[in-house]
C-alpha cells in the first residue's frame, strides 16, 4: 500500500521536517481532539455524577462489571444509563479506560453505534471515543469492528455523534494500519461534509481527522475527489475563522498529489495563499509559501498565475522578515517567479496550461 512520508512539523507522533515552523509549537494548530463535553448528557445530574465518581473510587472494578453487564440489557434505558456512566468513568481517568476495555465493554458499545435510537447511538459513540483516548485500546477497538459503525454514525448520527465519531476515527487513525481501512470504509467524504457544513467544533475535528488520514496517498486522492479543496480554501480565506492554520496544514499534506494542486488552483486557492503571505501570521505565511512553492516547481502556468496575483512584493518582505525557513522558501519561490521559463519546466508547461 502506498504510503507517503509527511512533510511538516511534529504532531501526534509524526515528524514534518520540511514545513516545520521555527520557534513555535506547531501542534497547537490542531486541538487534542478530545471532543467529549461534560454537558452532553442532560439525564446525568451533578448529584448522580458525584455518586458515580464516589462509587468508582471505592470499588471501580465491581461498578465497571455491572455497567458492562447492563450494556447487554434488553432495556434501552438501562443501556443508555450504562453507556453514559461508562463514558463518564472513561472521560478523564486512563486507568478506568483500561479497566473498562478489559472488562469487555468494547464490543457491546460498538453494537450501540448501529442503534436506531439517536441518543443511545450518541452515548455509544462518546464512550468509544473516551476509551480510544488510551493508546492501548485503539487496536482492540479497531479489531473489534468499530470502524464501519463509526463511519455509519458519522453519516447518520446527531451533530454530537458525528463530531465524536470523527474524533474516534482520528484516534484509531493514529495506528498506521487503520488509515487505509478508515478511508475505504467511506469516512473521507463524510469528513469533508462535516468540514464544509459542521459547526466550529465539527470543522475542527474533521480537519484534524483528515490531516491524520491523508498521510496515505489513496486518502489524499479520496479527499480531493470528495471536494475537500473548496471548504479548505474558503476557511483559509476567512482569516477570522480560527481555522486558517488547520486548513492550511491539511492542504500542505494534500498538495503532494497532482489532483490536489489542480483542485487548489481551480477553487481559487492561489490568491488566498498570496493574501496569507501578505497578512497572515508567521506560521500561516510559512505554510502558504511552502504550498505555493510546491505547486510552482513543475508548472510554468502556475508560476505565471502566482506572479500575476502580486505575490512577489509580499514574498520579498517575507524573505527579509520571516523565519529562516520561510526566508529560504520565499527566496526560492521569488527566483522561480522571476524566471518562469527556466530549466526543464518550460517543456512541461503544456501539461498544466488551461
Automatic annotation (TrEMBL):
SUPFAM superfamilies: ARM repeat. Its EC number is 2.3.2.27. It comes from the Eukaryota. It catalyses: S-ubiquitinyl-[E2 ubiquitin-conjugating enzyme]-L-cysteine + [acceptor protein]-L-lysine = [E2 ubiquitin-conjugating enzyme]-L-cysteine + N(6)-ubiquitinyl-[acceptor protein]-L-lysine. GO terms for molecular function: ubiquitin protein ligase activity. SMART domains: ARM. InterPro entries: ARM-like, ARM-type_fold, ARM_PUB, Armadillo. ARM repeats lie at residues 104-146, 145-187. Keywords: Repeat, Transferase, Ubl conjugation pathway. GO terms for biological process: protein ubiquitination. Residues 65-339 form the U-box domain. Pathway: Protein modification; protein ubiquitination. It is an enzyme of class 2 (transferase). Functions as an E3 ubiquitin ligase. This is RING-type E3 ubiquitin transferase. It comes from Trema orientale.
